[in-house]
Design a protein that fits this description.
- This protein has 416 residues and is of the alpha/beta class.
- The protein folds into three domains: 24-62, no CATH class; 104-290, Type I PLP-dependent aspartate aminotransferase-like (Major domain) (Aspartate Aminotransferase, domain 2, 3-Layer(aba) Sandwich), CATH 3.40.640; 320-415, Aspartate Aminotransferase, domain 1 (Alpha-Beta Complex).
- The chain is built from eleven helices and eleven strands.
- The chain has helices at 9-22, 55-62, 80-97, 113-132, 150-157, 176-188, 211-220, 238-241, 305-344, 366-371, 395-415; strands at 105-110, 139-144, 161-165, 193-199, 224-231, 254-260, 272-277, 348-349, 356-360, 375-376, 384-388.
- The strands form two sheets. The protein has a seven-stranded mixed sheet with strand order 1-7-6-5-4-2-3, with helices on both faces. Strands 8-9-11-10 form a four-stranded antiparallel sheet, with helices on one face.
- A hairpin with a 6-residue loop joins strand 8 and strand 9.
- Helix 2 crosses helix 9, helix 6 packs across helix 7 and helix 9 (305-344) crosses helix 11.
- The longest helix is centred in the C-terminal third of the chain and has 40 residues, at 305-344.
- The chain is globular.
- The termini are far apart.
- Bound molecules: pyridoxal-5'-phosphate.
Length: 416
Amino acid sequence: MQQWTKLNKETIRTIVFNALEENVNFYDENILGIPGSHLDNKVFYQDAPFLKDAPFLTALIHNPNHIGCHTLGASESFFRGTHQIERELIGLCAEQILKAEPGSCDGYVAAGGTEANLQAIWIYRNYFRNIDGVRNNSICILCSRDSHYSMSKAANVFDLDIATVRVDDNTRAIDEKHLQEVITAQKAKGKSHFIVVANMMTTMFGSVDNADIYAAALEANGCQFMIHVDAAFGGFIYPFTNPDNTLNFQNKHITSVTLDAHKMVQAPYGTGIFLIRKGLMQHANTKEASYVEGEDFTLIGSRSGANAIAVWMILMTYGRYGWEEKTTTLLNRAAWLAAELDKAGIAYYRNPYSNIITIRSEHLNKGIAGKYGLVPDNHQDANWYKVVVMDHVTIDRLIPLLEDLKAYQHEACLAE
Ligand SMILES: *Cc1c(COP(=O)(O)O)cnc(C)c1O
């Protein structure tokens, strides 16, 4: 079982420097065959004294390549030290956050949530083609209308149809009647195999799907299906704020999950995390990647090892209990804003375990939205605007917004 006990700065520094030490050193060793090296030394510091206290910056300068998938088979031996850190990070996310059995998952640090979602859909498309011998026209992506646009992108890239299910306007829950209609319509079009994407916090609402509704409906209709969880937004919050939830590897229907460390974890961009039960990653193997030691199972190809190190450093600095405290703080602030909006009679949506509050557009104007950087569901014709309670979004920062909303509400009442 991958441990998640807080480490001090010195230990983290030592582990990262030791890992870099195990990687190839382009200055000391005579490495002649790979198109990679340290970052350009005319532009970037190589031996500035502060670097010895800066493991992440040092990793950036060493520039290890994490091409391929390091939980599976062989990997490039030039970067074996930092690959091990990525392997630990994948184990930690799968086992400590998503309740996987020890060593039961593969995964890698992807460019972002988009790539991780595409990777899942790519694997399941190939799985259905390889195992059941079906063609693309029998396969359909199935998800709710609140799902991220990367599902449409995946449908386009992998040449698959996509069907979206209506959600209730107030609760954002999947409309089960409409789900049945969608399945019936897709079956009539010859679809027999479904790639379901269930959300653990949607981008706009922070709403969470019940994956078992999809599983029950598809089973009742005699369809084949695989379920991927898009936890790009919620993966580093919701499992902590609602630990009894069933969107994890304890649920037999769920075989893969997307997380995004560059959202709530405040890691550098380029830190999507893709996790999948062992035995499935192979369906995305590109055997032609013969010059890569261990071949390549990912969409991306070459990628920065410094990204995996950054996420690992953040999670190990907090430890499980530190992370729980952080998510509790965000949740408390969101609950505070929600309670204040209730008192003021301002309509909004919020999942009680989420740090997103999505306000109905009739309660504000573009001026207020612009002043506080609130994001609309639709830039042409907004129905909703969201507040995301991040680390920097303290109650002191929420108070002026609340005052402006109340004043707007008051004016609207006087005008009536
Ligand atoms: C942000 C987000 C994504 C896409 O993530 P990128 O990192 O921008 O590629 C996918 N799904 C959900 C729910 C998201 O919130």
